[in-house]
Amino acid sequence: MQKERNASTTCRNADAAPLSAPDTLEIVCRRCGGTGEVDGETCPDCKGTGKC
């Protein structure tokens, strides 16, 4: 069984800028690659949003 990670640990970016700032993009979840699913279930890192 794979150990679940805390979303606040894996989906954080110390250099994150507000999305309203020019030339910023949404951060895609590394674990699910933006799909929101891992092994057919909701991604525990992004809670199914596919974004961090």
SSE map:
Blueprint: H1 7-10, E1 37-38, E2 41-42
Envelope shape: elongated
| Counted beta strands | 2
Number of helices in the DSSP assignment: 1
Gap between N and C termini: 24 Å
Major sheet strand order: 1-2
Structural class: little secondary structure
As a percent range, the share of strand residues is 5-15%
> What's the mean pLDDT score?
78
Give the uncertain stretches in residue-range form.
1-8
H and E string: HEE
Main sheet summary: 2 strands, antiparallel
Radius of gyration: 12 Å
How much helical structure, as a percent, in the residues? under 10%
Offer a quick outline of the entry.
The protein is largely without helices or strands. It has one helix and two strands. It has a two-stranded antiparallel sheet with strand order 1-2.
